[in-house]
Amino acid sequence: xxxxxxxxxxxxxxxxxxxxxxxxxxxxxxxxxxxxxxxxxxxxxxxxxxxxxxxxxxxxxxxxxxxxxxxxxxxxxxxxxxxxxxxxxxxxxxxxxxxxxxxxxxxxxxxxxxxxxxxxxxxxxxxxxxxxxxxxxxxxxxxxxxxxxxxxxxxxxxxxxxxxxxxxxxxxxxxxxxxxxxxxxxxxxxxxxxxxxxxxxxxxxxxxxxxxxxxxxxxxxxxxxxxxxxxxxxxxxxxxxxxxxxxxxxxxxxxxxxxxxxxxxxxxxxxxxxxxxxxxxxxxxxxxxxxxxxxxxxxxxxxxxxxxxxxxxxxxxxxxxxxxxxxxxxxxxxxxxxxxxxxxxxxxxxxxxxxxxxxxxxxxxxxxxxxxxxxxxxxxxxxxxxxxxxxxxxxxxxxxxxxxxxxxxxxxxxxxxxxxxxxxxxxxxxxxxxxxxxxxxxxxxxxxxxxxxxxxxxxxxxxxxxxxxxxxxxxxxxxxxxxxxxxxxxxxxxxxxxxxxxxxxxxxxxxxxxxxxxxxxxxxxxxxxxxxxxxxxxxxxxxxxxxxxxxxxxxxxxxxxxxxxxxxxxxxxxxxxxxxxxxxxxxxxxxxxxxxxxxxxxxxxxxxxxxxxxxx
Length: 616
Ligand code: ARG
What we know:
Layout: H1 3-19, E1 30-32, E2 41-44, H2 46-52, H3 56-70, E3 74-80, E4 83-88, H4 90-100, E5 115-119, H5 131-149, E6 153-160, H6 165-177, H7 183-186, H8 190-214, H9 216-223, H10 227-230, H11 232-246, H12 249-263, H13 266-290, E7 296-299, H14 300-316, E8 321-322, E9 328-331, E10 339-343, H15 351-366, E11 370-376, H16 380-392, E12 401-406, E13 409-410, H17 426-444, H18 452-472, E14 480-481, H19 484-487, H20 495-513, H21 530-552, H22 556-575, H23 584-607
Parallel strand pairs: 5-6, 5-11, 6-7, 11-12, 13-14
Antiparallel strand pairs: 1-2, 2-4, 3-4, 8-9, 9-10
Helix pairs in contact: 1-3, 4-23, 5-21, 6-8, 6-12, 6-13, 8-13, 11-12, 14-15, 17-18, 20-22, 20-23, 21-22, 21-23, 22-23
The protein binds arginine.
């Protein structure tokens, strides 16, 4: 039994003995004691006041006395109003440390026999990954690691939205204007290369539109429109799609290409493969830089037809209905949602259709209990609708669907404009943080004795830790600003700050290895310092926190835990001697405490996808 269970059992026994009442563990409100009071754990006594028919203070006194008598691990108590503060014996904590200090996987839960699929990244194939994807990937990766640590079997997947009009735009632009150029011939990273043709398409399209506006045909259309409707802003808001679909040559060609693709035209399919493969190569480089990987990739081109089939079958059952124009819809009004389109009037599938098919294919493949979708909050409605549809289709996993929704990431104004001026490429961002880390490291001049290669590895490691920690520490649903300079600040609430605490612990432990010490003396360490107890209580929390973070799909709590532990260790290091402590037993105890801290920091940060350096 751990200390929480020990206290709970004691309280259950005490309430029975004192007041002849039954309580269960869930009714016991147990917290860490607030810093300003004496004690380690605090029980709220109000729930027992009714049973006892006594004043809260008296109940606290009686329960406290009982616990001291009956529970070996409790050595003291005090009552403040309705709160009973309990002091845990040093012996308990020493035993706890003895058990965990040498266990590098402390915090890992045994298998719970459940399988969860985590979908993240899931880009479209017409553009490189951008800042939003970075938050997505970091959240998806850390959520996966945390779920695995909580005992789940985790399957990491993506849906690659690899078909549709967007990729046809890149393909068309390359055919028309590319003159056979390739990523190799231009030495451009291959996903950026394809993205550039998407941007080029948009530019040519706009050019075409401007010319059309001046033409007779355009003028005729525009005469019917008001001044406001004719403005460029209105074009990009309201008229762009109409123009693309009805008047544009480029639009017509792109749509024709999509039709040919759906028919399986050999040339179009070959071009599609070539360009998508370029994109995948580029994505893979970025994933490697970020240190992430996937167990399986799903492609929309493989699942959209299954989605169509499901819709057609569902129509026979009356789940979906057809409008006069042949488009197919589902009515979700009684779930407080709208009517939703699932097949267009020409029979082609929409974004929702492929998601229905993909979910089913995934369940066929893995039989998971839960599926988590890491997708930006712009798509909240989409997932409400998708999950409702899956329930109506009576899918066995429908209750286990979860949207891990997250807010936008902005950059401080004026920072790092990308080529398009709006989005920031993931690759550029990574380069930027590593640059910041390098500058910061030069300033400190800490590892100049190492080879260039080693130094480069260290600043790379610090830069990525900075990027990852800064983003993950924010509650996912919150919109945030990513500030590269702040993210590498060794004094701030940052990844490098936590790494620095780890480096400090490791250096102490390395020194200890060279000394002739009596490690078993720790058992006779007589009196724990408040900071030592504080650290032990934090370490004790770690496995519970992992479980909570997994249940809430919230990696930010782990990041904040690591920061607090690092901070407490920095303080401890400052206030107390470790290797030069007064007694042999204090040295041994503090070293074991340091070992435990280094293990937990390493594991905690690993759950966030962050490596810990030995030096920095
Ligand atoms: N590719 C989509 C986009 O970039 C995101 C896909 C999210 N996942 C899903 N199952 N719909 O907007």
